Amino acid sequence: MAQLTDDCFAFSGPLLPLSEMERLIADRIAPVGETETVPLRGARGRITAHDIVAPVDLPPFDNSAVDGYAVRHGDLEADGDTELAVVGRLTAGARAELSCGPKQAIRIFTGAMMPKGADTVFMQEDVTVDGDRVIVPKGLALGANRRLAGEDVPKGKVVLPAGTVLEAQHIALLAALGITDIAVRRRLKVAIFSTGDEVVEPGAARGGAAIFDANRYLLTALLERLGAVVTDLGILADDPSELARALAKAAAWHDLIITSGGVSTGEADYVRGAVEKIGSLTFWRVAIKPGRPVAMGVIRAAPRKDYAANSGAAFCGLPGNPVAVFVTFVRVVKPLLLRLGGARPQTLTPLPVRAAFAYKKKKDRREYVRVALRHGADGEVEAVKHPQDGAGILTSLTETDGLLEFPEDVTAIKPGDRVGFLSYAALMG
User: Fold this and answer.
1) Does CATH number 3.40.980.10 belong to domain 18-33+186-340?
2) Can you give the residue ranges of every domain in the chain?
3) What's domain 351-428's architecture?
4) In Å, how far from its chain's centre is CA 252?
5) Nearest to 401 by CA among 379, 378, 428, 376
6) Does pTM top 0.85 for this prediction?
């Protein structure tokens, strides 16, 4: 389980800047220590536990990058064509037992091992073949169309550092190096639940003042996309004692607990008080919109015989509105999740697009606006704001392509301004 201290998120100000939150996570949260070995075929999305070192050169031998003719560059005429005798043929996978002697060429195919003596390859479409002889033009550089052993990865190089989240390209590289098993951090265990007497399970009987719970389904999908093992604890009633018992029990078995709803300042927002009974809530307002009432803290675990008394879980309390849940997850929870899982920090780089609307915001707050992309009359990509701003408008996520990020020092945007765009794919990981 996660070993956390009550002050791991400690912050003394009333409203936590997003950059400060990221710094606290990087500085004060340690990854889970347990590791396991998994087969390469099942490693996508896992996080490397150690640096991975190349056991061989890649490619393992000099080879041809094209179909053509392997030659000795020193035989070529500097001011005209060169005629060479074709003395052999090499295909990919065949051992290069042939040697290329003076004024000789060897027919070679892509991926075939370079023959002894040859150092340059002419593409087949650039030469003229005349029986058992080939005429090659002047001007080809030494080493052209030849791939050297180890030019991609030399043996002994760190190809993937610890903390790499493995994707398809990483797995392909490891397979090319002959690696079949990888040491990775164990998957994080995350418990989720919703709060609120007004929330009911989709498909259940719904009273006139109730709404179906979308947040747990949203969080499950986001967490599983990041490789977490999710325990859905359902919907908990607005009862401070019951909330405290559920949180303490979950802390004994999980690394992170995420709730939605109940962390604002309303009389019926009970989660904050429940956390403070069994742990510490070290900040509960972040300078972000939508999603300011987002909390982080530490929950002490209920006693267990097989864990030390100081075992506990990190806690994130998210707002109740689903759009605010999405924004706070990708910008607040995700960095914490990656850090707990042992991943290296991931930098979000907003892509510049042109704003097609005017917008005003408060200073000292990071704001995220839902937008769709389109091509303007001049062909340039521009961002169109969704017509509805509400944090409960789920269609504002399904009908848009991503978020515009407005930094803290920006207070106004006008049509034509360059703004930073973050796609949903980039945000979700």
Assistant:
1) yes
2) 18-33+186-340, 63-147, 351-428
3) Beta Barrel (2.40)
4) 28
5) 428
6) yes
Region of residue 10 (phi > 0: left; psi between -120 and 50: alpha; otherwise: beta): beta
Question: In a 3-state reduction of DSSP, which class is residue 85?
Answer: strand
- How many Å apart are CA 337 and CA 151, to the nearest integer? 36
160 band by pLDDT with thresholds 50, 70 and 90: very high
Which CATH number describes the domain made up of 63-147?
2.170.190.11
19 to each of 332, 338, 361, 407, how far by Cα in Å?
10, 16, 18, 11
């990865």: which residue's tokens? 153
pLDDT of residue 23: 86
pLDDT in tens, 287-311: 999 988 888 888 987 665 554 444 6
Cis peptide before 59 (omega within 30 of 0): yes
Amino acid at 134: V
Determine the Cα–Cα distance for residues 55 and 57; give it in Å rounded to an integer.
Answer: 7
Asked if residue 55 has a cis previous peptide bond (ω within 30° of 0), the answer is no
pLDDT at 388 over 80: yes
Distance from C-alpha of 285 to C-alpha of 194, rounded to nearest angstrom: 19
What integer is the mean pLDDT of 67-71?
Answer: 98
Rounded distance, CA 65 to CA 76, Å? 20
d(C-alpha 240, C-alpha 320), whole Å:
17
CA distance 24 to 86: 67
Q: Which residues pair with 423 in a beta bridge?
A: 402
Rg of the chain taking only CA atoms, in angstroms? 30
pLDDT, tens digit, 9 for 90 and up, residues 319-352: 889 999 999 999 999 999 999 999 998 889 999 9
Q: Tokens standing for 40?
A: 């390469």
* Dist CA 165 CA 47 (whole Å): 5
| Environment class of 383 (CB within 10 Å of its CB; exposed 0-12, middle 13-18, buried 19+) | buried
Classify the phi-psi angles of 52: left when phi > 0, otherwise alpha if psi is within -120 to 50, otherwise beta.
Answer: beta
Measure the CA–CA gap between 155 and 177, rounded to whole angstroms.
9
Q: Tell me how far apart the alpha carbons of residues 100 and 77 are, in angstroms, rounded to a whole number.
A: 17
Q: What is the pLDDT of residue 13?
A: 61
